[in-house]
Amino acid sequence: HSLEPEQPDDDVDFAQQQCDMESPSGRTDTRRVQPEQAQVQRHVAFSALSALNDTETSPSADSNAVGMPYIWIAAAAAAGTLETGYLTLMKLQGSSPVCPISGCEAVLSSSYSEIHGVPLAALGMAAYGFVAICSVLAARRAASERSAQHFHTAMLAGSTLLAGISAVLVYLLQTEFSGDTCVWCYGSATLSFTLLVLTILGLPPRQLAQAAGPGVGTLVTGLAVLYLGLANTQSSRADGLELAYESPPVTEESSKEAVSLSHRLHDAGAKMYGAFWCSHCFDQKQTFGKQAMADFPYVECFPEGWKQGVKVIEACDAAGVRAFPTWVINGNLVEGEQTFEALQEELSKPPQAQSQ
């Protein structure tokens, strides 16, 4: 037996490979080495391309906006939904919305407040709700590291539409209703522009560029629908429409409080300016009842009826009436239907305390 330790099998295999690769001249056979090197190079190149592709398509890299303020966007959109929902309800019920200053009634009851009988507030409610839902869904997909790009595009399109329509309506408010202040209108405009700014700031540049096209297209479509709807509304009301004067009779019974308040308003020189076709004016009369109408200080602004081009009588124009009904008590202009408590409060104020 040999005293030398046996050589491991691995060393034998390695030596055998070296022998196989040696040519008779003692040189390495490059024909076998080169294919192995090329295969290694292709593997390295493929790995690099795969890593680059994973980086570009990773949800956290670009498709999901890491800095998108989903909570603030959802909150602003929800606030807009509640506001426009309240205005829609008031419009459908024929009621006057609560307004801290005068001007709301004139704007929200005008022909610019609806398109083909559909309140603009209802359309705004749908748009705000759409943005709110997209924001919530996008936040959920981003949290699970899935792509939310489609929802981001929808959010930008919705907020762009809301901001564009609000800009047009604010322009109409300034040009067609000079002197009137609609806090609901300005509030909605503020929310819509806030949504647009938050969405733009939250999107990465690449995704913002991709979503810009659908956003602009949605805005152009919305503005076209608004223009055609308002134009048709104005023309349909102007073409051959004429209303003969006919005052509906008051049928409700008067309470003692109503008769007493009617006397006090008359003695104080207060006036309620209205129109025979105004449902709010009729409802205000019904609140007082038929017995109180003997001293009720009502002024009809269209005693000869209404048709296109006919203006209110001089007394209504001099009082600055822009909505019906309009109360003037101690020099103070109060728009919309009023409760007995509100009228009594106005009567209790001294004339010098009222704004002229």
Features of this protein?
two-stranded antiparallel ribbon, disordered N terminus, four-stranded mixed beta sheet, single chain, 356 residues, 61% helix, alpha+beta, 13 helices, 8 strands
Q: Could you explain how this protein is built, in words?
A:
The protein has 356 residues and is of the alpha+beta class. Strand 1 and strand 2 form a beta hairpin. Strands 5-4-7-8 form a four-stranded mixed β-sheet. Strands 1-2 form a two-stranded antiparallel ribbon. Helix content is 61%, strand content 6%. The N terminus is likely disordered.
Terminus-to-terminus distance: 128 Å
Report the radius of gyration as a whole number of Å: 37 Å
Form type: elongated
Number of helices: 13
Strand and helix layout:
Elements (H helix, E strand, L loop, with lengths): L8 H13 L8 H28 L1 H5 L6 H24 L10 H5 L5 E2 L2 E2 H24 L5 H28 L6 H20 L2 H34 L3 E2 L12 H12 L3 E4 L4 H10 L9 E3 L5 E2 L6 H5 L7 E4 L2 E4 L4 H9 L8
Parallel strand pairs: 4-5
Antiparallel strand pairs: 1-2, 3-6, 4-7, 7-8
Helix pairs in contact: 4-6, 4-8, 6-7, 7-8, 7-9, 10-13
